[in-house]
Specification:
With 316 residues, the protein is an alpha/beta fold. The protein has 14 helices and eight strands. Strands 1-2-4-3-5-6-7-8 form an eight-stranded mixed sheet. A hairpin with a 5-residue loop joins strand 1 and strand 2. Helix 1 packs across helix 14. The longest helix is centred in the first third of the chain and has 14 residues.
């Protein structure tokens, strides 16, 4: 079986990043989401390597073995995209195919939009490219969903990470099960007197794609860094809106693919954006809906995701 190797690489952004990698060939950069790390790409790293690609999955800024700065303002989309572009350079490549899931998808879309010279192709999973809105996002989400909505709640200092760090094994079990295709898929709005995790049940039995060893692996990866860095990504939503004015409604012209589960509440909530994705991503090569799949796309349906990725890569 193909070996996954680990090392630290100094991104040209200045951040020393932990990466998991396998294979040799054209570079495919795999960007994880929340609350994940390189481990969420374990099935893709080996499959891409065996197909003749150099697959690299970093722990992104603030996450797991990479860690990150203490200052909240150093987690903007410009920092995150800069880390990815700087990693392509640090790995000795001129260009890469950039694949992102969940929060990694907006980073991948941003890299393709801001630095198309560095991107052979872009793949988003679960989260489509959203053209920049006419007003800052947090107030809009507060009006629509209330103060308990997780993205609004994550604006608070200290409280969200205190809840998430309290029992990390329970956090991962609840989140990975709750948003899975065979989970309840709740609206992520905390009750008035409760926490964000209260709407996510702790399962008596894990779904077939997820094992106790997987939960233990996530807990181990988060042992030193915790959740403050990951939550800081959310605390920059309005700042990101301010910083990206120069790309307001700018198209993404690189070849693109979108993949999502048809039981993923995040994707279903953005269905109107997905249905019109080609308006702002004119070289969209396809949209793949995975039947019965929830939010954890590449972990729940590894074989189907691998097939879709390899078909896209071969067509570039």
């Amino acid at each position: 079986m193909t070996e996954i190797k680990h090392r630290h690489v100094q991104s040209q952004s200045g951040l020393r990043m932990h990466v998991a990698e396998a294979g040799e060939g054209p570079l495919v950069l795999l960007l994880h989401g929340f609350p994940e790390c390189w481990y969420s790409w374990r099935h893709q790293l080996t499959a891409l390597a065996e197909a003749g690609y150099h697959a690299v999955a970093p722990d992104q800024r603030g996450y797991a073995r990479t860690g990150g700065p203490a200052e909240t303002g150093r987690y903007t989309i410009l920092h995150l995209a800069g880390d990815a572009v700087g990693l392509i350079d640090a790995l000795g490549e001129d260009r890469a195919v950039v694949v992102g899931h969940d929060w990694g998808a907006p980073v991948a879309w941003a890299v393709a939009q801001m630095r198309p010279d560095k991107v052979r192709g872009v793949v988003g999973m679960s989260v489509p490219h959203r053209p920049r809105s006419s007003r800052p996002p947090v107030a809009s989400m507060r009006r629509m969903f209330g103060d308990g909505f997780y993205m609004v709640r994550f604006q608070q200092p200290d409280v969200p990470e205190a809840e998430l760090d309290r029992d990390r094994a329970a956090t991962f079990r609840r989140m990975l099960y709750g948003m899975a295709g065979d989970g309840p898929g709740p609206m992520l709005v905390a009750p008035e007197d409760g926490g964000f995790l209260d709407v996510l049940p702790d399962p008596e039995k894990l779904p077939g794609w997820l094992t106790e060893d997987d939960i233990a692996a996530y807990v181990e990866e988060y042992a030193e860094s915790g959740f403050t860095g990951p939550v800081n990504w959310y605390r920059n939503l309005d700042r990101n809106w301010e910083l990206t004015a120069a790309w307001h409604r700018a198209p993404i012209r690189t070849p693109a693919l979108f993949i999502a589960g048809d039981r993923d509440g995040v994707a279903l909530g953005a269905r109107h954006v997905i249905d019109s994705l080609s308006d702002f991503v004119p070289d969209l090569r396809g949209t793949v809906w995975l039947s019965g799949c929830g939010h954890w796309t590449q972990q729940e349906r590894p074989a189907e995701v691998n097939d879709a990725l390899l078909a896209f890569l071969r067509d570039l």
